[in-house]
Specification:
2 copies of one chain form a homodimer. In chain A, α1 runs antiparallel to α3. Helices cover 33% and strands 20% of the residues of chain A. Chain A has 460 residues and is of the alpha+beta class. In chain A, the strands form 4 sheets. In chain A, strands 14-11-13-12-16-17-15 form a 7-stranded antiparallel beta sheet, sandwiched between helices. A 4-stranded mixed beta sheet of chain A has the order 1-2-4-3, with helices on both faces. The first copy, chain A, has a 4-stranded antiparallel beta sheet with strand order 5-9-7-8. In chain A, a hairpin with a 5-residue loop joins β7 and β8. The N and C termini of chain A lie close together (7 Å). Chains A and B meet through β8, α7, α8 and α16 of A and β8, α7, α8 and α16 of B.
Chain lengths: 460, 460
Amino acid sequence: MDHALPAADALLAAFADAVGADGIRCDADSLRRYGADRAPLAAPAPLAIVLPADRDAVARALAVCHAHGLAVVPSGGRTGLSGGALAAKGEVVLATDRLRDVGPVDVVGRTIRVGAGVTNLELQQLLAPHGLQWPIDLASKGSATIGGNLATNAGGVRVLRYGHARRWVLGLEVVLADGSVLQLGGANEKDNTGLDLCGLFVGSEGVLGVITAATLKLTALPGPAEVALFALDDIAAALRLLAAARAAPATLSAFEVFDARSLAAVCSRRGWPAPFQETAPWYALCELEPAPGGDAAALEAWLAAVAMGEGVRAAALATDAAQRRAFWGYRESISECLAPDRPHKNDVCVPIAALGAFVEGLQRFDADDPGSILGIFGHLGDGNLHVNAQRARDAELFALVRRLGGSISAEHGIGLLKAPWIGLQHGAAELAAMRAVKAALDPRGLMNPGKMLAAEPSAI
Amino acid sequence: MDHALPAADALLAAFADAVGADGIRCDADSLRRYGADRAPLAAPAPLAIVLPADRDAVARALAVCHAHGLAVVPSGGRTGLSGGALAAKGEVVLATDRLRDVGPVDVVGRTIRVGAGVTNLELQQLLAPHGLQWPIDLASKGSATIGGNLATNAGGVRVLRYGHARRWVLGLEVVLADGSVLQLGGANEKDNTGLDLCGLFVGSEGVLGVITAATLKLTALPGPAEVALFALDDIAAALRLLAAARAAPATLSAFEVFDARSLAAVCSRRGWPAPFQETAPWYALCELEPAPGGDAAALEAWLAAVAMGEGVRAAALATDAAQRRAFWGYRESISECLAPDRPHKNDVCVPIAALGAFVEGLQRFDADDPGSILGIFGHLGDGNLHVNAQRARDAELFALVRRLGGSISAEHGIGLLKAPWIGLQHGAAELAAMRAVKAALDPRGLMNPGKMLAAEPSAI
């Protein structure tokens, strides 16, 4: 910091000018609540919370921070799992709660412009009557905001079908550290004019600027999907099933796996019956959208054929909506049911071709040190597994991921949690290029310092 | 330039060290051939052509250019339509022809790593036996290279179904102006670690560095598609048809339109019969992939229903492969058949909701000054129309596009052709941010100067 901190009173007056007196919170409860996300990495200790009511107020608030050399932590729904929204070092938290403008639903063009503070659930409810969706679906949809989804390039359970958030944004409004406003992209499906800064801001975890609004691309709500659950011998059987599911007479919209330990934790904590009479080492959940005009008998015939496949111990097709919810319930409860035992979930990705070697490597961890892996589950169709493991094994886990050409963070980002590890993922030249790009847009290094690009020279 | 040009002999010796003597061309024919793409904006006049045989040779060649302050024009298949690969000011052309390494097809993971110099057609032929494709399909596929596709974020006729090139790349190898090599991304479907420089380089038109290899995401080859042709009253009827086509019992994979003038040019130059007995103001081509296990009768019933729709004068479903090719032939021949009259095709995009107003605006041009618009055609499903117009009307055309919130270049990029107009698309703050990002990666402004970000201070 090359500026002495101004007196607290003067600063509060400047923020009050910027966002109005009702847009500032300094009480202990707000500081605690707005100062952290869902990664309990340090005690929240922000300087103040500012809640601008519109884009111009965001610009004024950031200009105040810039003038005083204050670090800024942008904050959406704070449902992140990597500490990207943690403010533990006296930063100003810029919360997007009040950026809630919603434009009309363009039903023909299939777009909508929304403020960063709108939640996924609110957007879902707004679009459903038009038969449309923004297809990023998260367990935390009641709190997670569109701005947060975009800042972290959120994925969710239907990445296999729809891809990440970056694919579903046509335009962004962002405010840079110095308060300047950028309008990036627009409502056009196709726009090859200039550098793709819109895509660059998606997934930038608040280190480049604050996303204040977005023009989103929408798609049709899918029809009802079929859900099948399989009990399997091993991960190789799951990979064969994935190949078969891609060739099913329907659109594969999710392909999830979980191991016996993950299922046992769910059944025990929730008091639910096991899905099959006998337990199996692995389970797969497969969601299939029947084609328009598709044939139900064809799907049943496909299921009967794959149920006879090598390594498939049992298969069940959900017969009604309640059973579909029950099958999904096993998968969606894992994270919560494993957490009480050892709340450290690693979110990694390896190329699908390397998944067998990866799971083998994890099993070796466990053989060396029983109990070091609590459960393995995740989005097999994306090569993305979540590994609930002892934190002490992180170094080995990440090294294994990198040996297999994988990514140490598939969905959850780097934030503070994995900032010390980013050098495992990217070499010196790549990190230097990222830091140069950050410095170009945030020369004073005030945006979310210490996150993502950790050792950047400009971080506080 | 802050360096005096070295003596030609010394420079050639340095390039010979970098890429081998057989990797340099200075003969008049090569200078002409490698010095321009398909936009005849100026006479090609490069200093020399270098053809490195591998990534390290690219790095050495760029280091030579950097040391001597020489501007570099990266060059792929030179099929671009915006002059992005034109070298008219003594630049060094760095051609990727020899970067032709191809990795194994990962059939399970659906990825492949290829050198930048591989053509779309070669890749297509390599993947087809595996039932896979890289779904960027271009009329120029025999010459266009993967590196060029990525540098321009190519689209093509199936953007509606598959999106642009950016969506189908998982990793890039690039060499920066100073010769440093970046490995961006990898073979992972999901990777939220750091800034998305991979996506930033896609569509960067050679102003940030040279793409030398890419790890591409693949998808299944589609089954045979149905092709229907419609004669329509007006663009409003085409938009209603688009909405109906999205709800067809099949996957809409292309929705193209062309006006009566475009069709007349094709029929007259090619000597083809008109598709319908009576002419109509507008035509639409609709390609539909029947769902796996889908029902042919359902599709025919859908077609019969839409053929009765308001503004639909006639409809025909192709009965065999030859007729499907014939229907596509009308659309794909337009560009070539209009070119002899007035070879100036503008590639613009407006939000789909604004297409009606856009076509109305164009018709007003023509009413004011008959003959100023030669033909309107394009990818209606993407809001992307090509307008063959008098160059003198560019300013009005772009102003109309921007009034409607559109993009002055949907697919073809900015290059040299539209560099003078980029200020219409982006404001001062946005251009300053793009130039700052370019300067961060190419501080001396040696990469493709004068293109895209035109008036950048560092351009020669």
